[in-house]
From TrEMBL:
Xref: Gene3D superfamilies: Vaccinia Virus protein VP39
Organism: Mollisia scopiformis
UniProt key word Cytoplasm: no
The keyword S-adenosyl-L-methionine belongs to this UniProt entry's keyword annotation: yes
This protein's name: catechol O-methyltransferase
Length: 266
């Protein structure tokens, strides 16, 4: 397939992006199983539990050398770690686990922050919601290899159903952070589900990935127009390739009403 010169230059520099540019396919074509095999045979594997960053580095290495992965990747990982260090969440709901990269990043950062502050690691919790059973299975294996199976629970099913069930059975009553990283078209709907379930309280931080690429303009307009929410975009790069994207970081300043149809704006 013939691409414009700027795309050809990107592909020449980052060959693992070729398939995505040629076919539009970025996941679910066998690469996830190949990643698991790569990780299980990786020379750093004996360090994964003692130094979980080595596992994330190995996933990034696969994305650079073997096949592109739709994980947040190393640049956005830095942005997210900084946010966690500032906000210090102890409970997180993530919509879209994929292979567990961001969940492992969150667990590692939260655990390090908590230990540095003399807090209790046993109080940390991440619910990572994933509807693809194969991806969820690989995520659980990587989470186990990184030693975070006590902190991260991968919940299989469509995010909306899992959110409703977790709240209904009393597993979740409130969270410090929501990470939206599943499908941009569902950000508005699932943000409203979190609101309806009473999860968006004063102090909650909601972070949404990919608001520029592929883009979530409706979501951005919603959170920026909501009374009681302070929202801004932070630049994050898609790696490999270096394409500029933004994460929308929304801090809830007052409890958002849990009325189902409440969409009150400033
Ligand atoms: C971009 S990936 C998530 C990447 C992950 N957060 C990371 O950085 O490692 C999006 C994931 O959301 C999942 N997904 C898509 N729609 C979903 C839904 N409605 N509920 C739960 N998961 C969904 C996809 O199967 C895919 O694994």
């Amino acid at each position: 397939m013939e691409h414009p010169p700027e795309i050809q230059a990107v592909i020449a520099k980052y060959p693992t992006l070729k398939k995505a540019f040629d076919t539009g396919v970025e996941s679910d074509d066998g690469r996830e199983g190949a990643l698991l095999e790569f990780i299980l045979a990786h020379p750093s594997r004996i360090q994964f539990k003692t130094a979980p960053q080595t596992l994330l580095d190995a996933v990034d290495e696969f994305s650079f050398k073997k096949d592109f992965l739709i994980s947040v990747g190393p640049h956005k990982a830095g942005v997210l770690s900084d946010l966690l260090e500032k906000h210090k969440p102890t409970s997180i709901i993530e919509l879209g686990s994929y292979l567990g990269y961001s969940a492992i990043l969150f667990a590692h950062t939260m655990k390090t922050n908590t230990q540095n502050a003399g807090g209790e690691v046993k109080d940390l919790k991440i619910w990572s919601l994933e509807m693809n059973v194969e991806f969820a299975g690989i995520a659980r294996q990587l989470i186990d290899l990184a030693g975070f199976d006590d902190i991260i629970e991968v919940v299989i099913g469509p995010a909306e159903d899992s959110l409703r069930q977790l709240v209904k059975d009393g597993t979740i009553t409130n969270v410090d952070m929501v990470f939206l990283d599943h499908v941009e078209e569902l950000y508005v709907q699932d943000f409203k589900v979190c609101q309806e379930l009473g999860l968006l309280k004063k102090g909650t931080m909601v972070v949404a990935d990919n608001v520029l690429r592929p883009g979530a303009p409706d979501y951005r307009a919603l959170v920026r127009g909501l009374k009681g929410v302070k929202s801004e975009g932070i630049i994050g790069l898609i790696i490999p390739g270096g394409a500029e994207d933004e994460l929308e970081v929304s801090n809830v300043l007052e409890d958002l009403k849990s009325g189902k149809d409440d969409t009150s704006t400033t």
